[in-house]
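User: Run a structure prediction on this.
Assistant: Running it now.
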Amino acid sequence: MEQAWRWFGPDEPTTLRDVTQTGATGIVTALHHIKYGEVWSVDEIMARKNMIEADPELGLRWSVVESLQIPEALKLGEGDLEPMFEKYRQSIRNLAQCGIDTICYNFMTVQDWMRTEHSYPLPGGARALRFNAYEYAAFDCFILKRKGAEADQTPEVLDAAKRWMDKASQADQDKLFANIMAGLPGAFERYDLQTLRDILARHAHITKDMLRDNLKTFLQNIIPTAEECGVRMCIHPDDPPRPLLGLPRITCNEDDIAFILGCVPSPSNGLTFCTGSLGANVANDVPQIAERFADKIHFAHLRNVSNYPDGSFMEAAHLEGDVDMVAVVEVLLREQKRRQEAGRKDWRIPFRPDHGHELLDDVNKPTHPGYPAIGRLRGLAEIRGVMTAVAKMHNLPT
C-alpha cells in the first residue's frame, strides 16, 4: 500500500523534509486557502504540486486530495445548483490535468468532525482526542440550548451532563465550545454560538432521506465528469457516525455505504475507508465492511478507537482499541493483489496513519488536533510492520 501523510501546506510545522523521514512517499493535502465552492485553478494546483515535488531526492508526490470541499448550499439543495456543480466539475478537470486522480470528500453538514477533548491525558504524559458523550450533551442541551436536544440523550448521559454543567466554569464552557467547533483542520469557516444557532435553523428541515437525495443528485452531476477524467471520488464516513446537533448523518454504516456506492454505479464512485470513523459505531464490523466494499476502496485512513458504554470514545493507539487493524490490513493487501493480477497500473491503495497521540516533543506544539508528527510517525511505523508481516505470511504485494 502507498504510505502517505496528511500535510496541511507550507505553514504547517511538519515540513516536507520531515515527512520524508517518516517513510511516507505520498502527500495528502488540499488547497485550504480557497473558499468552498470556488474553482481550484490549474495554476493553484500546480503551485502546490511543484512545492511537494520540488526536491526529487525526497521522492514525494501529491497522491490524494483531501478534501475538495462541497459548499453547504449543494448539501442542502438550495438555489441554482448547476453553476455550483460546474465549478466542482471544473476543479476535477483541473486536478486531472495536473495528474492528481484521487479525491476524498465528505457530505457532513455544518461540521466535519467533532471531539469534546483535544488533549485527554494518558499515562506518561501523552495526550489523545476524545469524545465524551456527557460533555457533548452538556453543550447541546445547556450551552447551545437546542430545542429537543434533551430527548436525544439517555437519562444517564443527561444526568452526567447536568453534573458537568453544575461544576463547569465559564472557561470550561468556552473551551468545550472551542473544541466542538474545531471542525475539519484547515476548514474555511468557524462559527460563534449565535451563528451556529442560525445555521442549525437553516438546516432544521433536512431529514436523512432529503440529505441522501441531495448526495445522490451531487453524485449524478459529478461522477460522469470524474469518470471521463479518470478521477476516483471517495466519500469519507461521518465522524462520529451518528446524528449530531439535530443534523442527520448518512455515511455511518454498511447500509449507508451500499446506498451511496449503488446509487451511481461507476469505478469513480468509491470510498475512503476510515477505520476510526466506522469503528466509533459499535454496531459496525469494520473488517467485514472492508471486505464487502474492497473493490471500491480508493483511499484508507487507518486509526483506532476505544468505545465506552455511554457512547463516548477515545482515539486509541493504532494497534490498540476496538478495530482489528490486522484484519483490515489483510483485506486491503488482498484487494491490492486482485487489482495487480487484473492488470491495473493503479493497484496500490494509498493510506495514511489517521490522527495520533501527542507524544514526546509533540506535546504543546501548535498542530492541528489529531495531527502531531511523532504520534502519527508511531502509527505509520506500526501499520508498516503489520503490512510487512501480513504480506510475507500470505505472499501478498505491499
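The first helix runs from residue 16 to 22.
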